[in-house]
Amino acid sequence: MSGRVEKSSRSKKTLYRLSLADRIERCGVDVMPCSFCEKRNLRCRMMEGVSRCKECCRRGRSCDGSGVTLSSLQRINAEEDRLVREEEVAEEKLLRAQQEVNEALSKLMRLRAQKRALKTRGVDMVNRGLRSLDELDEQERAESDAVVAVQSQGGVGVIDWSSVGIPGIDWDALGGTSQGVQHSSSSAS
Ligand SMILES: [Zn+2]
Ligand SMILES: [Zn+2]
User: Fold this and answer.
1) Is 11 exposed, middle or buried (0-12, 13-18, 19+ CB in 10 A)?
2) Which ligand is nearest to the CA of 40?
């Protein structure tokens, strides 16, 4: 009689544990396996607010499950993968940008060197031009000095009129209207 009662009570408890396990199966989520499930390679499932996993509940034993859901672990893993990918993309972008900066910098330096060379050439040209002008001025001054010197000694016809741009004019035939041609003694003789 008492044996039947014990047996009945045991099966009642077993049934109760089974229904609890069933509840956890329905409402719970897969978690990082507790050591019991891990050793037996069982799917460990826990329900929020309950400290034992389904398998431990079913066997009426204590459970050391952490309750960390596999989905949250998967989320963390996926998030990590995403960060790694984004990091690689950002690094590639940075390398490209750095390369572009380097190219732009060397182009700028080339342009500056060309500008400097051009400026130097310009200065040289202006200096050469000024020297030529000075030489011309000097030459003209020397010529006019020579003309004045000859004229002061009564010389005429020393001006090379073709050099002042009116070639071929016979100044004597025009009646000696030009200054310095009047009273010319050389043309009269
Ligand atoms: Zn478990
Ligand atoms: Zn457990």
Assistant:
1) exposed
2) 1
